[in-house]
Design brief:
The chain is 50% helix and 16% strand. The protein is of the alpha+beta class and 821 residues long. A six-stranded mixed barrel has the order 2-3-7-4-6-5. A six-stranded mixed beta barrel has the order 12-13-18-15-17-16. A four-stranded antiparallel beta sheet has the order 11-19-10-20. A hairpin with a 2-residue loop joins strand 5 and strand 6. Helix 2 packs antiparallel against helix 10. The longest helix has 39 residues. It starts with a helix and ends with a helix. The relative contact order is 0.12.
Length: 821
């Protein structure tokens, strides 16, 4: 042990004597290891982190499935959907496989109290036994114990740990105090433990509220659907009874779903149910596939960066070993054992990798904050991924892998030193010129890996450009959008109608405002889906269509083009016949061979028909990547909305209008918090966060890989010039000009770079097709992206070759020949 400690000290002393070499190697490895640790930390937080649930393998999420809903609306809905409350109630009462079944639903609510301004927060409405089912104990306070789901009976609230700290100053006395939620008094009965986020890894809740108060917590328009079997609003979580397997629970669920379909054919025909264990359901199914693809893409990219870094460092270590050839040969000739030299080299490599790992943890911490900065606004409340134990173990594994990859080639070379050449201090130039020389092979691999990362970055940059050119169906320039939820504050329908009227008058009077329009939902935001039935159709024959209630100046303010009939006017009032405006896709899908204006339809559960009075151009309603979707606009005056989106067209800079708009809305109704207020172009930017993040991160990783590859190419060519100095001097003495020597070195460098590019091109189809699901459209094998990567690499290769080529051209023939005498 003492001998090993001594050898470690000798290895560390040797590295200290070469500070520049040590700094470059440790910095290179720190960058690569830190990037890997940061990405893994984000993946760990989403897919692997503890949800603070007891025996999560025994907890399952139940989903509703349908033969026709998965395709209804052109794919806007996931094939796995929530349940209706009546169906949940039947499943709970009949299922024998579960110790508990409880519903939960995310809602936006307004809170007041605790000394802060009224604000809108995210809450989860849950069954009374939710915390018991998950095995979660409140940090203090009784929670929902002793309560049940009797409507209106238990106005209780459990605060999240973060909300307790931020709004209530971390006071334990908060238990028993009153907080006003949506204008109603709720008694605080507990604080959730730190880090608890329910069963959704991507959600961040501020408080939990009981199902018994459901009618006071959700938008008024949703309340009637609680008892409707088509109201698919409720997530369902259950805990399996001891001894019950997933297969048994799934089989029972299939039988119960078939019973419900037979008993309620109008609402449940073709509807089934399925379950997923909580570790799989923690990321919502509609998002999981893309999340996994994105995680694979980013993890693959940083793994390639690590390989490039390892290849680069291995080349530096090989160069250092070559520089120490004479020292090694002398020590061997004096009787040193080869295993001691190999062990010293391995210890030096291990110390370099360990130093890179430790520095990489600092890089990972900063990288986690960078990733958090890239996250979209709807993830803004999630905690920044930290250096959790799994991340530290992963980093330790990377250090071991890095030491192996970096040290393998130098160790193999150290096992076969040429003693005679080492004592003469001559480099085996003829062997270095071979394509099988380790440093040449490493450089080719380096360029190939850099090509793949750079090509991927350009591919996603091209994809981002394609998505930016998508027409969203409205004009976002000089448009500001603010959202409010007045019904959540307990405002009755008549007061909301008066509030909306005052908004239109007051906001229109603000300087620079050209037009104001109200709607229930903002562009690219959540829309209520309704089942549309034509005369004579049964409920299971209808299609689900997104619906938005809008004011009379909506289409003018947003720049939505009218294609047929008319749009809404001031004459569309509550006492006139209900009317609707539809988009072109709905007109084509429901009335392909007839004039849509004048046609009638009704919603499932409602008998009163609506008359189509106009057709407008298609747009994008939930996301920019969606295909053409049917869409319905209702007259806001005829169907008062619980939520309001205020759209303001200005003649000046939209950013300058945001704060005056906020102040005006607060003044009109001080108890109603303004959820958001931003230029509409920021809405589009939010919709583009995924391709923009992919392009930005891959561009960052591609830049790092490109830098490392160029340094590697420079180092190889510098070695070639140094080892071929005698040959270059003779060529110059025999009449070779400076241009010829420059071309000679440039040709060697470009041949190596070209070989790496060729390998990268061969691997590109297999690699890029793995990311096809993340692209908006088009073939992932994009010639423009591949061509751009080739041009960039060739340009960088020329730059890296230029300095060694100039050095070769300045070789002094007389000095070279004298040194050989």
């Amino acid at each position: 042990m003492a001998g090993l400690t001594k050898e470690i000290r000798l290895a560390a002393r040797g590295l200290r004597r070469r500070p520049l070499f040590t700094l470059v190697v440790v910095g290179t490895l720190a960058l690569a290891i830190g990037a890997n640790a940061a990405i893994f930390g984000a993946i760990d937080a989403v897919f692997l982190a503890d949800l603070a649930v007891v025996d999560p393998e025994r907890v399952v999420e139940l989903f509703s499935t349908s033969e026709h809903d998965a395709g209804a609306g052109g794919g806007l809905l996931s094939a796995l959907a929530p349940h209706s409350y009546p169906n949940f109630r039947d499943l709970r009462d009949r299922a024998a496989s579960y110790a508990e079944l409880v519903v939960h639903q995310n809602v936006q609510v307004g809170i007041a109290g605790g000394g802060g301004e009224p604000e809108q927060v995210t809450a989860e409405v849950v069954g009374a036994r939710y915390f018991e089912l998950l095995g979660v104990e409140t940090r203090f306070g009784p929670g929902f114990r002793g309560s049940d789901d009797t409507p209106g009976a238990h106005p209780l609230a459990i605060l999240s740990h973060d909300l307790w700290q931020e709004r209530y100053g971390g006071r334990r006395e908060v238990v028993g105090e009153t907080v006003r939620v949506n204008g109603q008094p709720f008694t605080v009965t507990g604080v959730a433990p730190p880090g608890f986020r329910g069963t959704n890894a991507l959600a961040s809740f501020d408080l939990w509220l009981p199902l018994s108060m459901y009618d006071h917590l959700v938008p008024t328009a949703w309340v009637p659907f609680k008892e409707h079997r088509r109201g698919l609003f409720f997530g369902v979580v259950g805990r399996l009874r001891p001894g019950v397997t997933l297969e048994q629970a799934a089989g029972e669920l299939d039988r119960l779903a078939a019973q419900l379909a037979a008993e309620h054919p109008d609402w449940n025909r073709g509807r089934g149910a399925t379950l997923l264990p909580l570790p799989e359901a923690r990321v919502p199914p509609f998002f999981r596939d893309q999340a996994e693809q994105a995680a694979t893409l980013l993890m693959g990219a940083v793994a390639l960066v690590l390989l490039v870094a390892c290849v680069n460092v291995a080349g530096l270590v090989l160069a250092r070993a070559a520089a120490r050839r004479k020292e090694t040969a002398v020590r061997l000739s004096l009787g040193a054992q080869r295993r001691h030299l190999v062990r010293q080299l391995a210890l030096e490599t291990g110390l370099l990798a360990a130093g890179g790992g430790l520095a990489g943890l600092a890089v990972a911490s900063g990288g986690a904050r960078l990733l958090y900065a890239f996250s979209p606004p709807f993830f803004a409340d999630l905690p920044v991924p930290g250096l959790e134990p799994r991340v530290l173990l992963f980093t330790a594994g990377l250090v071991l892998l890095t030491a192996l990859l970096v040290g393998l080639a130098p160790l193999l070379q150290a096992l076969r030193p040429d003693l005679l050449e080492g004592l003469k201090n001559q480099a085996p130039a003829e062997r270095f010129s071979s394509w099988l020389h380790p440093r040449r092979l490493l450089l080719v691999a380096q360029v190939a890996l850099s090509f793949l990362i750079l090509g991927g970055a350009l591919l996603f940059l091209q994809n981002l450009g394609d998505m930016r050119r998508i027409d969203p169906g409205f004009d976002a320039t000089r448009l500001v959008v603010a959202t409010l939820n007045p019904a959540a504050q307990g405002l009755p329908a008549e007061r909301i109608r008066g509030f909306a009227h005052r908004i239109e008058e007051e906001v229109a009077a603000l300087p620079g405002v050209e037009s104001v329009a109200l709607a229930e939902a903002a562009p690219l935001a959540f829309n209520l889906f309704r089942r549309v039935l034509l005369p004579g159709q049964s409920p299971d024959e209808g299609v689900l269509v997104a619906v938005n209630a809008v004011g009379p100046r909506y289409f003018e303010t947003l720049g939505v083009e009218r294609r047929a009939g008319r749009v809404f006017s001031e004459h569309d009032r509550p006492d006139t016949r209900p009317v609707a405006v539809i988009n072109q896709t709905m007109a084509r899908s429901l009335w392909p061979d007839a004039e849509p204006v004048g046609q009638r339809f009704h919603f499932s559960g409602e008998e009163e028909p609506l008359e189509v009075v106009g057709v407008v151009a298609d747009g994008k309603y939930l996301q920019l990547r969606e295909d053409a979707q049917p869409y319905i606009y209702l007259a806001l005056a005829q169907r008062p909305a619980a939520t309001l989106a205020v759209h303001v067209r200005t003649g000046g800079r939209p950013e300058a209008l945001v704060e005056p708009l906020r102040r005006t809305l607060r003044r009109l109704e001080p108890e109603v918090p303004v959820s958001t207020a931003q230029p509409a172009e920021e809405l589009l930017a939010t919709a583009l966060w995924a391709p923009r993040t992919a392009a930005s991160l891959l561009g960052l990783f591609g830049g790092v890989a490109l830098l490392l590859a160029s340094l590697g190419l420079y180092a190889v060519l510098a070695t070639v010039v140094a080892q071929q100095r005698r040959d270059l001097g003779i060529r110059k003495a025999l009449g070779a000009g400076r241009a010829q020597l420059v071309r000679l070195v440039l040709r060697q460098g470009l041949v190596l770079a070209g070989a790496g590019i060729a390998v990268g091109l061969a691997a590109a189809p297999w690699v890029f097709r793995r990311a096809e699901g993340l692209l908006y459209a088009g073939d992932p094998i994009d010639p423009a992206s591949l061509g751009g990567a080739v041009l960039i690499l060739v340009a960088v290769a020329l730059l890296a070759c230029w300095l060694p080529a100039r050095r070769a051209a300045r070789v002094d023939p007389a000095g070279v020949l004298r040194s050989d005498l």
